[in-house]
Amino acid sequence: MSDLNRRTFLKSVGGTGVALSVAGCSELTGGGGGGENTIVPGTASGFPPFEFVNESGDLVGFDVDLLSAVVEQTDYELGEWEDLEFGQLITALDNDRIDVIAAAMTINDERDQTIDFTDPYYDANQAVLVREGGDFQPGSTDDLADRSIGAQSGTTGAEQMQALVDDGSISNSQATTYENYVLAVEDLTNGNTDAVIVDTPVAETFVSNRDVVIAFTIETGEEYGFGVREGASDLQSALNDGLAAIQEDGTYDELTEEWFASE
């Protein structure tokens, strides 16, 4: 995908979008309609290209298309999407307000103690974004000392930022969490923070349409999975089978090409 196309695709993908049930809502409202096999998916927009709201007001992105394709391979049907803050998703799942999380959620031990995950569907690391052409161009985490850093609340990027606080590299006042990464990057480009730590594929998308660059990456070896309630083994197995099916028939490759291809 060319630079021009990467700058414009965010404005032109509404054709594959699905309607938001609660666009930008911070309250858990639940309910997806449909029959007993209907599952309510939850996500947290503001994480392009995995999930975001386009100019037409549609929820779109890789996770949206991927989960839709996976569920089509099962006996389940997708209900209306719930768009929540990232930090609310596990609570919403535990409270039966949603049935599956599709939000580029990293599988880690802490989350795995509360919910169950499907097989991994995407690998990622963390990237450090800075302003394009700015004086601050760090080459490692050591260079982030005494700088203001931003990340989305509840993410593994925020965990990396907290690690800098814990080791004394930055103070609590220099660490800022945001509702989503769009707000964090806006603060970066406006000069209100010096760097943002974000998952690599999302960082690359911001580089394509904002005045920011990736200064360096932090190798974390993360894997994303769909989250389901503990004990929802039937749904977990069905999603795993559906994921394997679309990886086998080429649908997964088509979606990664659509959302992540650089040429």
Structural notes for this entry:
- With 263 residues, the protein is of the alpha/beta class.
- 33% of the residues lie in helices and 23% in strands.
- The chain is built from 9 helices and 15 strands.
- The strands form 5 sheets. It has a 5-stranded mixed sheet with strand order 12-11-13-10-14, with helices on both faces. The protein has a 3-stranded antiparallel sheet with strand order 1-5-4.
- Helix 2 (62-72) packs across helix 8.
- It is globular.
- Mean pLDDT is 87; it is low at 1-33.
- Bin the helical content: 25-40%
Tertiary shape: globular
Q: What structural class do the secondary elements suggest?
A: alpha/beta
Low-confidence stretches: 1-33
Number of strands: 15
- Beta-strand fraction estimate: 15-25%
Radius of gyration: 18 Å
The number of helices is: 9
Mind describing the biggest β-sheet?
Answer: 5 strands, mixed
In a nutshell, what does this entry contain?
With 263 residues, the chain is of the alpha/beta class. 33% of the residues lie in helices and 23% in strands.
Task: For the structure shown, list the relevant keywords.
single chain, 263 residues, alpha/beta, 5-stranded mixed β-sheet, 3-stranded antiparallel β-sheet, 23% strand, globular, disordered N terminus
Secondary-structure map with pairings?
Elements: H1 3-12, E1 18-19, E2 38-39, E3 41-43, E4 52-53, E5 58-60, H2 62-72, E6 77-78, E7 82-83, H3 89-94, E8 100-101, H4 109-112, E9 115-117, E10 122-131, E11 149-152, H5 156-166, E12 175-178, H6 181-189, E13 195-199, H7 200-209, E14 212-224, E15 227-229, H8 233-248, H9 251-260
Parallel strand pairs: 2-6, 3-7, 3-8, 11-12, 11-13
Antiparallel strand pairs: 1-5, 4-5, 9-15, 10-13, 10-14
Helix pairs in contact: 2-8, 2-9
